[in-house]
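Entry 0007
Protein: Ribosomal protein S6
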Amino acid sequence: MPSSSELADFEASGSLGQSSKAIPVLSSSATQSESICTPSLQSIAVDRHRHLRPPTSARTSAADPEQATGMPLYSLSCLIHHYPTYPPLRTLVHTAASLVEANGGLVRQIDYLGRRNTPQRIRAPGIAPGGVGEADYWTMQFDANPPTVRELTNRLRVDPRVLRHTTLLVGSNLRDVTDPRWNTTLRTSLRLPNADEKIDTHQRALDHDYAFQ
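Output (structure tokens):
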């Protein structure tokens, strides 16, 4: 597991790998970090199982579907080392959300799922030789353009705190996600019989039983 000093040096370096030229590198100054952090995200240190709300701008747009960004909607699932304190997790979440918002995206929802056992032991450089069997799980739903998603993936890949991560495309626009297209092919077969059909079915059953007496 990376030490506290290694994480501090890692955060101070700013970029977590080579950044794309089209995407600005985030500043690691304390002033900018404080302006980006929201009180709802900082509440993770109070209750570890508490639902984490996205920033105010994200909550407003998510409540009004018409305020869509026009960008695809993605879902990020991430497993990180379990640390005895919350700053490593909180900093990682803030960094990911800040990258999305700095490039015109929108963070719609962040959930902390707590400390859980992994399906199998995870082995990665810098951790115990036998691997780890538990991790902190968190997810994030966000709107972003493909270059931002690639940059976020590259940063998570080289982050020493991250054990596993995956990003899935949920939908190309908000309407595809909020208005599901129901399968109507089974409506006819699921129609309930009316009273006359019930009587006819019952009578045919009686006739069938009478024929074999």
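Curator remark: The longest strand covers residues 106-122. The CA atoms of residues 193 and 199 lie 10 Å apart.
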